[in-house]
Amino acid sequence: MKKITPILFLFLTLASQAQVKKDSLNLKLADLYFKITNVLCSLDNGELWGTSLYGPSIFVDPTDNSAIANQADFWGNLTPSNGLYRGQLPDEMVISNNILNWGGLNWACMQWPLNVDKTERNIELLKLQFLRFAPSIGISQPLDLMGHIDSTDARLLIQLEWRALNKAIHTTGTEKKNAVNDALLFRNLRHTIYPDGAVVEIQLEKLYGLAEYTALKLSKLTDEQVMERIALKINTANKLETFEGILGETSGLFYAMLLDASGMIWRKEVNATCDLGELTRKDYLLARSQNLDADAEKASQNYGIKQLKATEAQRAKEAETKKTAFSKLLIDGNVCTIPLENAKLSFDPRSSIPFGVIGTVYPNIIVDDNWGRLIVKNGALVNNAITRLCVSAKDLSVASQNIETEYFILELKDGWRFVPGKRNGDYELIK
How does pLDDT run across 18-35, given as a tens digit for each residue? Predict the structure, then answer.
């Protein structure tokens, strides 16, 4: 069975390895982190969501799937250890900062070691507590992906909406209300153009946007720290090749903050069918546009639409150049085909490049499977069925079990070897 680290709520393995220091699974430290999370979840006395969010939590070392939890599981997999519980998760289970359904419980699961930065660590812990809690108020992970999100029109409207929302949280009075109205114009126009995508967007805003909002509220950041975090989030988002993994969190946080600023009681209205944008429109007493296209076009002049169009045109050109290069390398060029049998894949979904029916190219990806470990440095093409991947065979020598080229590093287990492929210069990995 193939195991892919979930795309939409992935805290990337590659990124986390750069942010944290190495530390063995430590019982005392884990106990401290559990206690801190419990305290942070209790500070508001249930003011946010009517109850403490603290619940089943587990830290897992992804190198061997050893685990420490704050309570026992229903199936008896974990054993008591100095007030906590230790155990071993199945080897085939992918570990990411996510909600883990295992042992009869939904766990707030985090990779060990945790982030060494106290603020970021606390925010990550609190976000996971909300994600675990969210289904109890009707918020769930949508099953569909946002196929529209990287189209030029969608990207333009998303960025216009963010610019208007950013203006709204930094202003007051009529100026604030007008900026909120502008944001809703861009949002509603996008939702009109992409109605199926709108359904997914709305769910992601509630799930990940409210997770971020809740974490910031419970972590007791100052208003200045929150604004700095938002500024960083926007600057980072604008540079991404895709908004797939960040749209819900960013937009949802903006609307939650604006709902707070409205002074209205809104959190009790959050449920499976609500729309944070519509709640905002109602609380700010804004009418729906009767001429959406024209009103949005007029409003866009106040948010740098000309510059955005030029930037997006350049981005699209660069993306096409990159796609052409990978096509020559991994479709037209000689490749090594590697089977995916029981694979764990860790990658940055924001940099993936779709190739339609052929599959998806990941510029960087780490794969662990029955045959060993593959670290891709410059492109891997994974087919849509996730049964094989291809890396470049350029300058490849298959004489060793440990192979390194400018494109990848491969550590093979005994019994696996490369044989010539169907085309001259191609290779296939077999046992």
Answer: 333 345 799 999 999 999
